[in-house]
Amino acid sequence: MNKLILLRHGESIWNKENRFTGWTDVPLSEKGRDEARRAGELLRSFSIYPDISFTSLLKRAIVTRFLVMEELDRLWTPAYKDWRLNERHYGALQGLNKLETSEKYGAEQVHIWRRSYDVRPPQVGDEDPRYPAHDARYQMVQEKLLPHGESLEDTVHRVLPCWKERILPEAEKGKTILVAAHGNSLRALIMMLQNLSPKQIVDVEIPTGKPLILELGENLTVLNQYYLG
Ligand SMILES: Cc1ccc(S(=O)(=O)Nc2cc3c(c(O)c2O)C(=O)c2ccccc2C3=O)cc1
C-alpha cells in the first residue's frame, strides 16, 4: 500500500499578521520553520519516508518541503515544483488583513465569500503587480491560464490536471509521495480523493505543519487517513 502525505506549509509571516497571502511569495515565520522540522520528525518517528515530493512555486511550500526532507535526511529524493499547486489567488484581497477587508467590503460580503465555492474575490487588473504575468517564475505559463483572482472552484480546476499528469502516475507506481502545498490547493486534492461536495469542502480546514497521511489501496481508493501529531 502506498501513502500520499499532504502537508500544508508552516506558518508564514503573513499568516502571523492575518493577511490574505495567495500568490504573494512571503517566507515562513520562525514558528513556521519549526513546524516544518517537527513534521519531518513525526514522519521519521513513524518511518514514513517519501520517495518523491511535489511543491508549488511559492517559497513557503518549497522551504517546508526542504526542512521536512532535511529532517528525514532525504534531500536527495526527486522534488518537483508546479505552479498549479500554488495557493488560491485572492485577487485584490492579497495583502489586506482582516480589519482592512471588512472595512473595505463589509462583513456581509466577507460572510458570503467565506462560505462560497464558486465566488471569486475582487479581481486585479493586468497592470496590478499582483497579476502573476509580471513575475518571471510564470513566464512559461500561458497567460490565459494566469489568475486575476480565483474561486475555490477555479483552484480545483487547475490543481486536478497537475494531480492527473504528474502525481497520479507516481502513486500508480506505488510510490510514497509528499505534497507540500497550501490550504486551498490541498483542499482540491482532498475533495477529489474523498469525493466531497462543494458544500463539504468549504468546511474542511487543513492545519499548518501537520502531515495528513492517506493510505491508498487498489485504484487509489483512500483506505485510511490520519493526521500525525
Ligand atoms: C485576512 C483575513 C480576512 C478575514 C478573515 S475572517 O476571520 O473573516 N475569516 C475568513 C474570511 C474569508 C475566508 C475564510 O475562509 C475565512 O475563514 C475565505 O475563504 C475567503 C475567500 C475568498 C474571499 C474572501 C474570503 C474571506 O474573507 C480571516 C483572515
TrEMBL record:
It is an enzyme of class 5 (isomerase). Substrate binds at residues 8-15, 21-22, 60, 87-90, 98, 114-115, 183-184. Its EC number is 5.4.2.11. The record marks 182 as: Transition state stabilizer. SUPFAM superfamilies: Phosphoglycerate mutase-like (SSF53254). Pfam families: His_Phos_1 (PF00300). Keywords: Gluconeogenesis, Glycolysis, Isomerase. Gene3D superfamilies: Phosphoglycerate mutase-like. Pathway: Carbohydrate degradation; glycolysis; pyruvate from D-glyceraldehyde 3-phosphate: step 3/5. One of its GO terms (molecular function) is phosphoglycerate mutase activity. One of its GO terms (biological process) is gluconeogenesis. It comes from the Bacteria. Belongs to the phosphoglycerate mutase family. BPG-dependent PGAM subfamily. This is 2,3-bisphosphoglycerate-dependent phosphoglycerate mutase. It comes from Barnesiella intestinihominis YIT 11860. The gene is gpmA.
